[in-house]
Amino acid sequence: MQNKLLFALRHGERADRAFTHRPCPLNFDPCLTEKGLLQAEQSSQRILSFIPPNKSVHLVSSPFLRCIETASFIAKKLNIPIHIEEGFAEFLFTWDFDFNPLKKLHIRAQGIPALEQELGVRIIDNIHLTGSVYPETYNMGNNRVKNNWQVYFPRINEDVVICVSHLFVVGSLTEIWLDRRYSISEDGYCKLTIGSFDGQKYEVKQVCDYSHATQ
Question: What InterPro entries does this protein map onto (predicted)?
Answer without folding.
Answer: His_Pase_superF_clade-1, His_PPase_superfam, Phosphatase_SH3-domain
